[in-house]
Amino acid sequence: MSAKPNYDPQAIEAARQESWEGRGDFAAPQLGDGGERVYVKPSSPFTSGNLHMGHVRDYSIGDSYARFRRGRGDSVLFGFGFDAFGLPAELAAIERQVPPAEWVEECGERMLGQMKRLGFSFDYDRIFYSSDERQYRWSQWLFITLLEHDLIYRADATVDWCDTCQTTLASIQVEDGRCWRCHNEVRLIRRPTWFLRITPYLEENDRNIELLEQSGRWDELSLATQRYILGRSDGVELDLGGDGRSLTAFTTHPRFAGLASFVLLSPRHPEVDAWATDPAAREELERMRSGGWDRSARDARSVPLVDTGNSIAGPGGEQLPVVVSPIVDARYGPTAALGIPAVDAADRDLAERLDRVEVPAAPEGEGEGPAPAPVESAGEATRYRANDFSISRQRAWGCPIPIVLCEECGPVPVPEEDLPVVLPRDLQPTGEGNPLAERPDFVDVECPKCGAGARRETDTLDCHFDALWLWVPAAVPPEDRDEQMFTHPELREWLPSERLVAGNDSGGFVFDQRVVTKALRDIGPFEFMGEGEPFAGCLFHEMVIADGRKMSKHLGNVVNPDELVAQHGADTVRMAVLYAAGPAKTLNWSDGAVRFASRFLRSLWIYSHDRLATFDGLAHDPEAAADTEHMRDRLRKWCENGLARITEDVEQLQVHKAIRNITRLFERIQDFEKRVAQRRGQLDRADAEAQLAALVLLARTLVPFVPHIAEELLVDLGVEDSAEALERWPEEAEIPVSPSPSPAP
Ligand SMILES: [Zn+2]
Ligand SMILES: [Zn+2]
After folding, report:
1. Residues β-bridged to residue 600
2. How high is the pLDDT of residue 158?
3. Per-residue CA distances from 378 to 227, 337, 641 (Å)
4. pLDDT at residue 235 tops 90
5. How far apart are the CA of 414 and the centre of ligand 2, in A?
6. How far is the CA of 631 from the centre of ligand 2 (A)?
7. What pLDDT sits at residue 540?
């Protein structure tokens, strides 16, 4: 066996990647292959042109887990697609004056190259782009399906509008009330917008959080985001009125409901217009509705507040002023709530702004407060802050909404057989106007219902809508996606995904994906997913920062994964990212982690090859071997304990702990040799055999994290060079304690 003293990551990694690709190691197994089916779903990246360190973190965690499950004999699907529509790609295309489709393709290819260079074991044949018309045909199908089941509706919404550019603007395109492009002042307009109705599924999403928690496969961070987005409040509701008018109002202060001194209505409350009868109040309400209040609806001292001038009889018969404010939405959703300034700080702030409401004296000190005043007729109630949201945008780079607007028939869905409605491939947005609306070849169409001349909807779907089902396509073989995207037999095998691994800013996506899964279960295609949950497990990780701050070009602290890989190799970068912080912690990037990983891998490489090189020259002396048997036995125990710990760590995706335990095991293996040498001057062949077996075990546990060097080491240590032999996760530590019966001469 030849010694390979130098660790050359670039050469090793290129060679390993070539053999993975050549053998097709990461293709999702065929149906009928043995083992549990495990679909590991990483986040779907935007086609931004470059992997950033957050991606490296995300995919390094997901890849470790996917490789670990493969090593245990499970059938693993590790696949994803690009979230390729949306504003970032559109803005990049405007800047470069290329069609967004071209830009997206260029970015995707570049990012896939980076992923392969990092050794991520995706099934690359299953990669897809949400902006591919074979893909978005199904976004359009989903739109029509949800529309048919009343889960999509059209209503007016407020949007920013630039008169100069003749276009609506996304909120990130408005800076200090001015247009990002022309710097003129922006105004708010009302226009028809498509909404996704999620409210019918809020209660079930809420109930299921407990199930997800009990499964033990959802980490705390991901559960916390689901609770936060749901925004559940528990309290009581009571019916007010009695003088011909009525209103049901909610409060989270059941013991003090009798102390209410006003009623707060959401501007989206279904009865709000009946209360705002006074012309001045009506005008104010209109202003509030078109005032973009979503941005400042939390501070009770500045939030818009309109007194309707009307009142309603409270629980004790007293007249309670009815006021309107979006603060209700920010706290409890589009409902009515009791204002109880005696016990609620925000209500107190509001009361100070209302002429008709007396502000009660503030409680003197701790424990001092008003006497309880519960209302007997009140019943327990729950409110959710989560609410329907808009899914259409006036943007060029998005999935066309499959709707024809007919003067006679109104909005008419495009028949399924006419899908996809194709976005013109040469569309070139400029930032001015709506380029789709200016394309007669796109706009002018016959009404599918009455045949009269009509116009296509020129709004497109927000990329959040594409994301509602981005976890589905990887589970369907590419050649069957045209026909069977939502009906393919493999869906039943892979879904729900065993684990989603994503950044903790994905909570909103996940919440809405959970809603849509339930809708598709009730509608039919996903009836096999009884609980309506797309992810059986979920791991959210925090972001990667540098120098204690978010990475940004402006701060000049952006860490470039390509440079790191070129300098240190993919394994070192992967290990550094995994080791530097547990998934739930923000990773503050430092060169220290890279130095640590680099040192560890290099020393493991050199150490193992040195031991291999000297092994052949070692003699076996039964007496010497007997004298160190207890030491080999101790090494075996260390290996057993280490393996048990590492296995448990990876099962729970606590990859930083797994790596820490691997580095400790390496220290033990070195320690074993030192102690034997201290006792006897040198190793017996039996000791060296045990030590090499321990190094094989160590390399096996490293395969999921640093697959290139680990596999190369295994091959050098005598393991067969095949996927089955190299990927196998060790069930037990096979460390020979008694000398081999017939040592090699
Ligand atoms: Zn403008
Ligand atoms: Zn018509």
Report:
1. none
2. 76
3. 26, 13, 58
4. yes
5. 11
6. 87
7. 97
